[in-house]
Specification:
Elements: H1 5-11, H2 13-26, H3 36-45, H4 50-67, H5 70-85, H6 97-109, H7 119-141, E1 152-154, E2 162-164, H8 167-170, H9 175-181, H10 191-200, H11 204-220, H12 225-229, H13 236-253, H14 262-274, H15 284-309
Antiparallel strand pairs: 1-2
Amino acid sequence: MHVSLEEQARDSPAAGKLSMLLFQVLADKTSAPLSRNDFYLFLKKEHSEENFDFYMSVLNYRKMCKKGVDAEIGDVASKIIETFMLSNGQREICLTSKVKTAILKSIQVDQTYTPEIFNDALLEVLSIMRASSFPKFFEENSKDYGDDAGLHTIVPDDLTNETGLESDMAKDQDPLILQVLQNRLASPLSLADFYNYLVKKHSEKDLEFILLLEHYRKHCRDIPEFVLRNGVTVHSSRNQLHAMTLEIREMFLRDNHLKLSEAIQSQLRSKLEDDADYHPDVFDGAYVFVMERFKNTFIPAFYTQGLETEKGW
């Protein structure tokens, strides 16, 4: 029995995330090191690019169907069969006999050229890529992903202007979460989509905190550590640091909008209020707490929702 990618996603959140990311890669909506070209080069290295080529050929066939030129549509369909589906084809793909027979009958006997004619074959090819080549590609290309996390992120207008995840914070994070937070994915998995999803869950403060904290880290980058740490230091930056940390406390910590543990809240009060320690790592406990919630709760559900709404494959 054939299992669709949607069914795989419902069975496993992790499978759902990879399936959704596969669609984004194939649609060329991701950037290096997880771009479509990166995936194709990986497949060529593995000598298994025929599934990718078949996928792209079917997309081209669908475009021809929209143009409505019958002669050209027939030629393109026949070329796909000759190349990918016949036993002596140049790049034969692995299909079940039921699917292959049905397609051959529709085209060679009935001469039916509908946009959906290759759908069942496409599903099988996508499932093969999802189960074998794409996980290997993802594992290999995301090992050092954190070292490539310096892109700016354009965030929703009602949050702030722009920010970026610094590599020292990003290197230990889930690459799939970083794809969203760096706004590397297109709708329905963009940063704005994620923010709107959190609004519906009444948890948008989590994302606002992460983004504001990144802005604060960027601000502190060139300030000497002794100025950040020492509450008795007289320095022009101290008043601004105090104002910025006060803003974070008022927005997120006073009423515990982030639902932090008592231990984390106590540590923050001690560092910020008693010690006047304004180093960004004071917030690390809260940062990890919120990112774990993203990883274990919000991101899997958000990816699954995106998988259910994504069209065009």
